[in-house]
Amino acid sequence: MAAEVLLIAGQPWLIQRHRRRKRAALRVDSAGCYCLSPFGTPESCLKQFVLQHQAWWQAQLKSLPNLKPFQADSIWPFRAAGRLITSEDTPKRLKQWYKQQAEDYLPMRLDDWASRMPKKPKGVKIRFYTARWGSCNRRQEIQLNWALMACPDEVVDYVLVHELAHLVHFNHSRDFWQLVATYYPEYKQQERWLRQQGHIHLTQLKSLNF
Length: 210
Hints:
Structural class: alpha/beta
Domain YgjP-like metallopeptidase: 88-196
InterPro entries: UTP_pyrophosphatase-like, YgjP-like_metallopeptidase
Protein name: YgjP-like metallopeptidase domain-containing protein
Helix content: 40-55%
Number of strands: 9
Largest sheet: 4 strands, mixed
Order of helices and strands: EEEEHHEEHEEEHHH
Strand content: 15-25%
C-alpha cells in the first residue's frame, strides 16, 4: 500500500493509521511530520486538523535541534572524545557501535558506583529510550539508555548515581536527593546539562533508522 502523504503549507505529512486510535494526533521530530489517525478518517478531515494546529507544528519545527549530518568526517557525540564518521559507516553500524560501547562501559561503571553506595541492583538492562536516560523498578533492576554514550562522563555518572539512589528511595523525596548529593555533590550541574542538551543527543541517535 502506498504511503498517504499530505502536503500542507509546503510541509509533507505522513499519515499513519492505527486500529486502536480513537482520535487524530500530530507528531513532529527530526525524522519528519506525522499525522496519527484512526482508520476511516477522510484525508479532508486530517488536512483540516493539521491546518488547525499549524502554529503549534511550525513552532515545533523551528525548535528541532540542528543535528549532525551522517556523512564521512562528521563528528558525532561520544563521551568526551566524539566519534568520527568514516566512509565505511552506515546508520545501522553506528547504532550497533553505540550499543556495544554502552554494553561494555555502563555495567562496569555502574558496578563501580554500586560498590560505594548502599545497595547494588539485582539486574541491569540496556536499551534505547526516547524520553528518559534510566529507570529503576521495584524488583531492584536498573534500566539504562545506551544513548548515554553520547553524553559527557560526568553526566553518565550522575544518571548512574541517580538510579542507584532509587534502590534506597523509590521516589524523589528530600531523602532521595540528599542521598544523591552525598555521592555526587555536583548533581545539579549535570541535571542542567541534561535539560539543556540531552534532548539534542536523544534526537541525534534516534535518527539512526529506528
